[in-house]
Amino acid sequence: MSLRLVRGTVPREQGPCVVTIGAFDGLHVGHQALIARTLECARQLQLPAVLLSFEPMPREFLRPQDPPARLTNLRERWRLLQTSGLDRLQLLRFDDRLRVLSGLEFMELLRGFGARVVIVGHDFRFGRNAQASAAWCAAEAANFGYRVEIVPPVPVAEERASSALVRSALAAGDLGRAAA
User: Fold this and answer.
1) 9, 41, 139, 150: which has the highest count of C-beta atoms within 10 A?
2) pTM score > 0.85 for this model?
3) How far apart are CA 113 and CA 8, in angstroms?
4) Which portions of the chain are predicted below pLDDT 70?
5) What's the Cα-to-Cα distance from 116 to each of 20, 58, 65, 94, 134, rounded to whole Å?
6) Strands 159-160 and 132-133
7) Residue 8, class by beta-carbon neighbours within 10 Å (0-12 exposed, 13-18 middle, 19+ buried)?
């Protein structure tokens, strides 16, 4: 089965699924842990595994004068995800309509999307002004008919894997640290 790409401003229900959400810029080891847990849960429940991401990335939209450097462009992310085992890459257009959704409205959007399980990182934030945390989402999820699993940080040496850490290592010319 090959990875299917679906684009839009609001996801349409395409049947029940297990979904992980984030920018997934660079697909570092933290992102790989989210994808692995999504695949594991999807296999257990016999549901499609979906990666929900955004284009442009939220920080690019919110800070167009100072966007973060991309670790991968969309075409490269697509190429890297082809062999991930995921069933679908769902790209939401990040725009003013999505930006103003409250945490509760975003969770309702996930219910309409068909989410049965949502897998997020420990530092996941969403909703207008990033008002909702991963822990808040997990506490509220039962009200929306799905559950939320929070994946803990993935250590790299004595640091937490993150796109910011990769960017910092690249800026310092530390290719070994960036590769780790």
Assistant:
1) 41
2) yes
3) 12
4) 1, 9-11
5) 11, 24, 37, 23, 16
6) unpaired
7) exposed
